[in-house]
């Protein structure tokens, strides 16, 4: 069985967006499915990780076609702002410059559903010929960017191929959507396109139960939940940090700025001399100005080890070296469906997770079921402090570790097996 996978993010792209389909492509041949990957020839990736190129099977067929990207043009005026916005880091409204507000308005209202929409028509034309010549009858599109689903929509209408639309994140309810300064007509167009994709695709793939429930209100098509997962990493056992390191790995956006955490840490540093002597806040990845300002406001700067963006392999090493791992999600109804990809790597690191997010978040149930840490909401400050003190006590005794259960269901190989079953039912 041959399947065409249409994706924007592919090595050397860095960040979480590349991992899902890089791993599916890695394991699909073992289930009797040959993946053909379609990617842009000249993409504008906000993050690069050349180490991921080594994970691409040299036998995988990869086809490319040129893309015109507004982000490439915008970089000529403001490279820094362009890079931040394209990677989802949107400044706080009160701190947005005139240029930033203009860029967000243009991004939201002139390029619908997103800035990669100019790749849609050329890709439909190019892939129509390729699909016919190579006898492909099943395609998969993965978003964001959700403009890639419009490629699938066009190919479905033109050729009648079987089409699976994979949503790594929601479309009109994703956290940053309301920050795009959308006009009423632009908002209506987003919703119309979303509904057309959901009602035209043969099967919808989502990463969380809440997104499935949301989409069931919009379509009667089959919806399958296949979460992200972890892969077997060939990394030697790491010595733990000597400090009581509490590490956040990944983009730390301004909307995820957890005042409850900074207050708790500041009070623990003030009230507990041992905690003060051993504590370290480790930040790995892009961190917004608002988060850094809050850390400074609470007097935590002396305890910060800010490593910036690192390769995926180095991020995994840092996960396994850290004493405690932080998972922070925006406190809103829209983010209950978000299950960050890093959660699954966290779970196999044998380090306890402290998660802070909305009440009823999908990831909280996974953490509970796998016994990999604690999941709190933004009103549970005292519980957070007590949990951190409990982990600190175990750290001092040399016994701090998580004891996970039932993780195999989240291995990339097992998840690919579930994907293969879905594909073979089409």
UniProtKB/TrEMBL annotation:
SUPFAM superfamilies: UDP-Glycosyltransferase/glycogen phosphorylase (SSF53756)
GO terms for MF: glycosyltransferase activity
Domain of life: Bacteria
Protein name, UniProt field: Glycosyl transferase family 1
Pfam family, one: Glyco_trans_1_4
Biological source species: Flavobacterium subsaxonicum WB 4.1-42 = DSM 21790
Transmembrane helix found in the keyword field: no
UniProt keywords, alphabetically: Transferase
Boundaries of every Glycosyltransferase subfamily 4-like N-terminal domain copy: 106-233
CDD domains reported in the protein's UniProt record: GT4_WbuB-like
């Amino acid at each position: 069985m041959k399947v065409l996978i249409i994706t924007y993010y592919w090595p050397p792209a860095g960040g979480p967006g590349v991992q899902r389909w890089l791993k599916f492509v890695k394991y699909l041949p073992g289930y009797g499915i040959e993946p053909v990957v379609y990617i842009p020839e000249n993409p504008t990736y906000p993050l690069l990780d050349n180490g991921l190129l080594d994970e691409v099977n040299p036998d995988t067929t990869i086809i490319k076609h040129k893309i015109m990207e507004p982000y490439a043009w915008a970089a000529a005026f403001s490279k820094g702002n362009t890079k931040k916005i394209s990677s989802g880091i949107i400044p706080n409204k009160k701190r947005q410059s005139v240029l930033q507000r203009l860029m967000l308005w243009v991004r939201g209202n002139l390029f619908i559903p997103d800035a990669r929409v100019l790749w849609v028509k050329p890709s439909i034309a190019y892939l129509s010929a390729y699909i016919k010549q190579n006898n492909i009858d099943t395609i998969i599109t993965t978003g964001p960017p959700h403009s890639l689903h419009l490629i699938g929509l066009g190919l479905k209408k033109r050729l009648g191929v079987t089409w699976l639309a994979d949503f790594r994140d929601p479309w009109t309810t994703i956290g940053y959507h309301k920050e795009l300064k959308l006009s009423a007509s632009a908002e209506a167009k987003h919703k119309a396109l979303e509904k057309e994709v959901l009602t035209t695709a043969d099967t919808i793939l989502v990463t969380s139960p809440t997104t499935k429930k949301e989409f069931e209100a919009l379509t009667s098509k089959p919806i399958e939940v296949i979460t992200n997962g972890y892969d077997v990493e060939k990394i030697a056992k790491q010595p733990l940090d000597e400090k009581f390191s509490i590490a956040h790995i990944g983009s730390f956006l301004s909307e995820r700025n957890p005042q409850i955490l900074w207050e708790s840490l500041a009070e623990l540093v003030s009230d507990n001399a041992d905690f003060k002597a051993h504590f370290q806040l480790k930040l790995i990845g892009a961190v917004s100005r608002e988060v850094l300002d809050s850390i400074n406001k609470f007097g935590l700067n002396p305890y910060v080890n800010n490593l910036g963006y690192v390769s995926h392999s180095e991020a995994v090493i840092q996960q396994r070296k850290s004493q405690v791992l932080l998972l922070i999600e925006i406190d809103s109804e829209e983010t209950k469906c978000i299950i960050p990809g890093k959660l699954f790597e966290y779970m196999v690191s044998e380090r306890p997770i402290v998660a802070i997010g909305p009440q009823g978040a999908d990831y909280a149930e996974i953490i509970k079921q796998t016994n990999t840490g604690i999941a709190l909401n933004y009103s549970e400050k005292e519980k957070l402090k007590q949990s951190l003190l409990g982990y600190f006590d175990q750290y001092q005794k040399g016994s701090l570790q998580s004891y996970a259960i039932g993780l195999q269901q989240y291995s990339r190989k097992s998840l690919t097996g579930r994907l293969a079953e879905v594909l073979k039912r089409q």
